[in-house]
Amino acid sequence: MPAxxxxxxxxxxxxxxLLALAxxxxxxxxxxxxxxxxxxxxxxxxVVWRPISGSxxxxxxxxxxxxxxFTADWCPPCRLMKREVFADPEQARKISVLYIxxxxxxxxxxxxxxxxxxxxxxxxxxxxxxxxxxxxxxGNQPQVLNGYPGRKQTIAWLESAVGKARLGIRPGSVTTPxxxxxxxx
Amino acid sequence: xNEALILAMLxxxxxxxVRLVLLAFLFGMPLLVAVGAPAIGxxxxxxGYGMIxxxxxxxxxxxxxxxxxxxxxxxxxxxxxxxxxxxxAVSLAGVALxxxxxxxxxxxxxxxxxxxxxxxxxxxxxxxxxxxxxxAAVMTLFSSLLGGFGDLAILLVVTITGKVLEAIxxxxxxxxxxxxxxxxxxxxxPKIALAQVFGSADVPWFMLASYASTVTLCLAFAIVVMNxxxxxxxxxx
Lengths: 185, 237
Fold this sequence. Notes:
The complex is a heterodimer.
Chain A: H1 16-38, H2 55-62, E1 66-72, H3 76-86, H4 89-98, E2 100-106, H5 108-111, H6 116-124, E3 129-130, E4 132-136, E5 143-146, H7 151-167, E6 173-175, E7 181-182
Parallel strand pairs in A: 1-2, 5-6
Antiparallel strand pairs in A: 1-4, 3-7, 4-5
Chain B: H1 3-14, H2 17-36, H3 49-56, H4 61-66, H5 68-72, H6 79-111, H7 118-145, H8 150-172, H9 175-188, H10 194-199, H11 205-228
Helix pairs in contact in B: 1-6, 2-3, 2-6, 3-6, 3-7, 6-7, 6-11, 7-8, 7-11, 8-9
C-alpha cells in the first residue's frame, strides 16, 4: 500500500489516462498543423454578408458604411483574403459591427455574364480586378482597396476606412498596394 | 469529480461582492448597447471571455493561499477530483452566464424589431460553451502554479509574450517566431468557431485538435502539479 501523500497512491493518483489522451491529441495537433500549413483547408468565412438588394437602405437606417467585397470564386488572392481576414472570428465580428458587409460575386467566367445588380455595382465602382474592397457611406466618395496587400494591411485599411467614412473624406481615395487578379474583360 | 466541491465553488463565487459587481457590469453592458444600437445584432456580445475570467481568477490559488486546501486534503478527497471539480464549476457557471446573456440579448433585439437568426444565436451560445470549458482549463493550470491571483499574472505575461513575439516576427520577417507567437495565443485562448466547423468545405482539424489538446494538457498538468504540492499548516503554500 502506498504511503500516505505519495505521488502514486492515496489522494494523489496520477492521471495516466488523461496524460495519455493529452499526448495523443498533442501529436494530432502537430500533424494537423503541418498538414494545414502545406494544404490550407477551405474554411468558411465568418462575416455575415448581406444581400445586395436592401443594403443601401440598411446603411441609411443604421448610419453604417457599406463594405463591398468584389470577388470571384476562381481568384486565388480572394481565397487568401477570405482565409486570413474574413475567416478570423475577431475580424469578422469587427466587420459585422462596423459595416454593412455585402459580397459581390463575379460569375462572368462561369456563367458568361453577371446578374444585373452585380454588373451595375462593378460598373458604378469601375472594378477591373479582384479582390477589390469598396467602402461607401452616404455623402462621401467611395474608398477603394485594389488587390490583397496582406492580412495586416487589409485590417489596417478596414479600420481606417470606417473612421474616414464617419468623418467624411476627400474624393477619390484609391489604394493599390496588393496582389490581385485582373477581371479579364 | 465531486458534486459537493462543485457546489462549494459556486457558493464561493456567489459570496464575493467584487466578482458579482464585475459580472453584473460585464453581463449588462452589452445588453445596454444592444438596446441603444440594435443594428449591431448579436455581434455586440463578443465572447464571454471577461465573465469567464472573473469566475476563474484564483480558482485554486485562493484556496492555496488561504489554507483551505490543507484542510480539504485532510479528508478523503483525491487531488484530481478537486482539480476537475473546480474546472467543471467555473465552466458551468461561465456557460450559464453566457447563455443567459445571449438569450436576453436576443429577446431585447426582438423587442427592438431586430430579431437575430436562430442559427446565429445557437452559434454564439455554442462558441461560448466551448470557450468556457477551454479558458477554464487554462486558468486551472495557471491557478495551480501560483497562489492568490497569480493565475491572472501568468495569463497576462504569457499573452503579452505571444503578442510581442508576433510583433518581433513581423519586424524581423521571421515566420517561425510568428508561428510560436500565434501558438501561444491559441494556447491561452482555446476556442472553436462553430460557424467554421459547420460551414466549411474542409474540416478545420487543426482548430479542433488544438482545442482538445490544450484542454487535456492543461487539466493533466494541473493535476500533476497539485499532486506534487506539499501542503502543511507550516507551509506558505
